[in-house]
Design brief:
4-stranded antiparallel sheet, 6 helices, alpha+beta, about 300 residues, 5-stranded antiparallel sheet
Length: about 300
């Protein structure tokens, strides 16, 4: 599964990879091009560490230096789900030179790391795949779809394993196997292109009013919805269920009154979920906000508000 960079401009096209070696070749060919590198996003601290020169402002970075940096790349594998000696693992491939050449921040991939109990700021596109590690230390690719990125079972297992003191020991065998694949003779990238899944910024994608945003905290999720100024408590209907949410606002236009409806990313405690209508001032103007607070059943990072069908 490919996760495009956060600004939505990095159009990832790669074939269905029959093996880890083919995926590595595809991904290496992609990041080597330096697509969407920008001098306006360059991490000057990384430039200093690599070049040994200090630039106080990006505007002072010579264009010829940036042109050399933009084509640098190093594919790095991060283990999201460590295996138990042999067994299944999930890894993320990324370009560790993303900050050096000013790749855009990849919010979705960064949230994926956090959902696995890991830290880091991902730059540029990345790929996530599931592997099977044998007792002999070899790896095979397993089927892994975009919907699997949000699967609760492996995410919870990843959090538990990544919190263990021996986490590095668990991850080491799969990293050695991946390094062996990377060092093997290159294969031709698979050429049948497929479009990467669209990036979800955590904001309602449906056209038309109202827009809503959601924020993930340790123990709860907050949803904020813009509603008409005349909205009263009697116009709002919120249905909280353990794994389902529906929000209707009667003052919205016909056809747009159901703002949210779907299965939640994780379970909540419906008895402690609440909503309020607030009046706030935005740029000197009064605005009406419907605010929902969803109490989590488990303190686990959410990647989206509702799961895709």
């Amino acid at each position: 599964s490919y996760l495009p960079a956060a600004d939505g401009k990095a159009a990832v096209r790669a074939g269905q990879s029959p093996s880890l070696q083919a995926l590595w070749a595809n991904f290496s060919g992609l990041v080597a091009k330096g697509l969407y590198a920008s001098i306006d996003r360059v991490d000057l601290a990384e430039v200093e560490a690599v070049m040994g020169r200090t630039y106080t402002q990006r505007e002072l970075l010579p264009r010829e230096v940036f042109e050399e940096l933009r084509h640098r790349y190093r594919v790095e594998a991060r283990v999201l789900l460590p295996p138990e000696k042999a067994g299944e693992a999930v890894i993320m491939l990324l370009d560790s030179c993303g900050g050096l050449k000013g790749l855009p921040h990849n919010e979705r991939a960064t949230r994926q790391l956090a959902a696995c109990g890991l830290s880091g700021d991902v730059r540029g596109d990345c790929a996530v795949c599931r592997l099977s590690l044998s007792d002999a230390g070899t790896v095979d690719m397993l089927d892994f779809q975009a919907s699997d990125l949000l699967d609760r079972q492996w995410l919870e297992l990843a959090q538990k394993k990544n919190a263990r003191a021996d986490r590095s020991d668990l991850a080491a065998p799969v990293l050695r196997a991946v390094e062996a694949v990377a060092a093997a003779p290159a294969v031709e990238p698979v050429t049948a292109p497929v479009e990467a899944p669209a990036h979800d910024e955590g904001t309602a994608a449906a056209a038309g009013p109202p827009e809503y945003t959601w924020e993930d905290a340790k123990s709860d999720v907050t949803v904020t919805i813009d509603v008409p100024q005349a909205t009263t408590n009697g116009d709002v209907r919120c249905t909280f269920m353990a794994d389902w949410l529906r929000v209707d606002v009667a003052t919205l236009p016909a056809g747009a009154r159901t703002v949210v409806e779907g299965r939640l990313f994780q379970r909540v405690d419906p008895d402690t979920c609440v909503w309020t209508l607030d009046t706030v001032t935005v740029e000197g103007k009064s605005a009406r906000k419907l605010v929902l607070t969803l109490e989590k059943e488990k303190e686990m990072r959410w990647l989206e508000l509702t799961r895709k069908a």
